[in-house]
Amino acid sequence: MSEKKSLIISASPKVRKFARELGANIGKIRGSQRAGRVSEDDVKSFIKESFTKVIVKNVPEITSEKEIKEIQKYDHSEFGEVDIQPIPRIKKIARPHLVKSWTEIPHVTQHDEIDITEMEQFRNSLRDIHTGEIVKTTPLSFIIRALVKALIDFPIFNSSLDIANEKMILKKYFHIGIAVDTPHGLMVPKIRDADKKDINTINSDLKKVSEACRNLKIDKKEFFGGSMTISSLGGIGGSFFTPIINQPEVAILGVGRSEVKQVFIGGKFETRTMLPLSLSYDHRIIDGADGARFCKHLRESLGKDFAYKLAI
Q1: b vs e for 102-133, b when ≥16 Cβ sit within 10 Å of the residue's Cβ?
Q2: How far apart are CA 220 and CA 238, in angstroms?
Q3: Model confidence at 70: pLDDT above 70
Q4: What local confidence, expressed as pLDDT, does residue 23 receive?
Q5: Are 188 and 226 spatial neighbours (Cβ–Cβ below 8 Å)?
Q6: Stretch 103-108: mean pLDDT
Q7: Annotated catalytic residue: which of 107, 111, 184, 283?
């Protein structure tokens, strides 16, 4: 009789229905309330733990030889000529990190277009005060400065989550990660203390770290300790995309190629230079309103020349 009683799960009809709807076996859920009674929060925790165990622990096994053979019933060469090459080392290193980020973080991506007409006019007008020659400055330098200004006003974007202790770590430094395309694979070095640097210094640092990555002469530590990352595809092409957050950061900014468009302003069409942005963020800590305000801040910083003239 006592054995039968021990199998009885204490839970209200509402909680039992909630568990059934989520496909959870209430008999396997440990209740946290008095006398082991199961609550809705217990059901949610059980589902979350089960999901995490299945996804995170089993994902690497999908790439095992046994799993591949089960999925791929026929050899690729049976359908035509193939060329088999090893996966580049950098991509092999990045693979588990990307899988972990995508499976653990609930990504939300917000798209926006920013009018950078005045910024581009100002950027193209920069000249050396001594020689009078045009100073070539990448738009990315201006975007980094605008991003730092936004991080200062919205510190939650410059944070990391400590899930185990239910804490968030707000960073007081501003180290901006830059996704660099190299022959060896994608690397993400940091522009350190970007809040203390002007446009010219940032532009110079971008050239140095990019060159160091391409030549594999950069310290491994430079890939860690970032505030937020920028993934810019402007030099290649394309517009909007969904960049994957670079853990342990909580947001990433994707930048597409700027395009000259006809924009309806003040009752008439004007020719403006528009920049597509894609902001991905961790929805566990950043909500849609935060994302919208952050994009608006970037739009105002990059759309008004005072924001970057003061940064020179």
Answers
A1: eebbebbbbebbbbbbbbbebbeeeeeeeeee
A2: 30
A3: no
A4: 74
A5: yes
A6: 92
A7: 283
